[in-house]
Amino acid sequence: MPLAVLQSPGPLLVELGPLAIRWYGLLIALAVLLGLWVSSRLAKMRGLEAGVISDLLPLIVLGAIIGARLYYVIFEWRQYQINWLEAFQIWKGGIAIHGALLGGSLAVVAYARWMKLSFWALMDVLLPSVALGQAIGRWGNFFNSEAFGLPTSLPWKLWIPVANRPAAYLSENWFHPTFLYESIWDLGLFVLLILLIRRRRSNGDWLLPLGGISCIYALVYSLGRYWIEGLRLDPLCLWGSLEQANCLRMAQLVSLLLALAGAAGLAWLLALKRPLPDPGRPID
């Protein structure tokens, strides 16, 4: 008996003449606004100056958009080499979350150096909002009927229009709702990070030293993404192809490296047992 049978109503929320409002854009806007609110509250709790997050947000959004698109275009260059101007047509789709994370992080590095703030202090209050934004943004994949997984007969499944199915799966109707898997995983990660960032030790110090929240995000998110990526039918391949069954999935490789880096960083931080330093101190 089906537990959940999902079918997208389509990518458009409303269309008024030349004006079209898409679900994906609305969800991204919602994620940005909620992220601004959450991170601003966390920044205040952690002693950062008022307005830091709102000042930083436009840089993060710009860096994330550029990084997400550039990452995708690099690994799908065969698609764009004939008409490279299409690489700038981001509204047609084609972005990657790891590229967004890299671009956004570089924006934070630049801002931290400019304002003489701690990079890790900023990342620790930003990444819970990133997890929340990812949980919301994945529903954009649902409305676009994209980023779905292998065919499935499980009680929970996603119907994909024929036009959106890979050629090898045209006769299949039901697929893994990988957007839902990652949305639930990211929401759980958001709750975990919020619980941890608010906790203090008995002596009044924060439970985790500076950078601890960032390391946990890298570890936990990457473990979930590694598993979910193995189900998807639209991977970016470092080499090989899905059709030839020799695709080295770029997202799995990056997730593995991030998970290892997060685990190593967390172990190092906990071994030092240092309290959270002043986030406004100048960088030496």
From TrEMBL:
Transmembrane residue ranges: 20-38, 50-75, 95-112, 119-137, 179-197, 206-228, 248-271
Pfam family of the protein (one): LGT
KW Transmembrane helix (keyword) present: yes
Pathway recorded for this protein: Protein modification; lipoprotein biosynthesis (diacylglyceryl transfer)
Main location: membrane
Subcellular location(s) of the protein: Cell membrane
Positions that bind a 1,2-diacyl-sn-glycero-3-phospho-(1'-sn-glycerol): R138
Any one GO BP annotation for this protein: lipoprotein biosynthetic process
Membrane topology: Multi-pass membrane protein
GO CC terms: plasma membrane
InterPro entries attached to this UniProt entry: Lgt
Keywords: Cell membrane, Membrane, Transferase, Transmembrane, Transmembrane helix
GO molecular function: phosphatidylglycerol-prolipoprotein diacylglyceryl transferase activity
Family: Belongs to the Lgt family.
Function: Catalyzes the transfer of the diacylglyceryl group from phosphatidylglycerol to the sulfhydryl group of the N-terminal cysteine of a prolipoprotein, the first step in the formation of mature lipoproteins.
Protein name per the record: Phosphatidylglycerol--prolipoprotein diacylglyceryl transferase
Lineage of origin: Bacteria, Bacillati, Cyanobacteriota, Cyanophyceae, Synechococcales
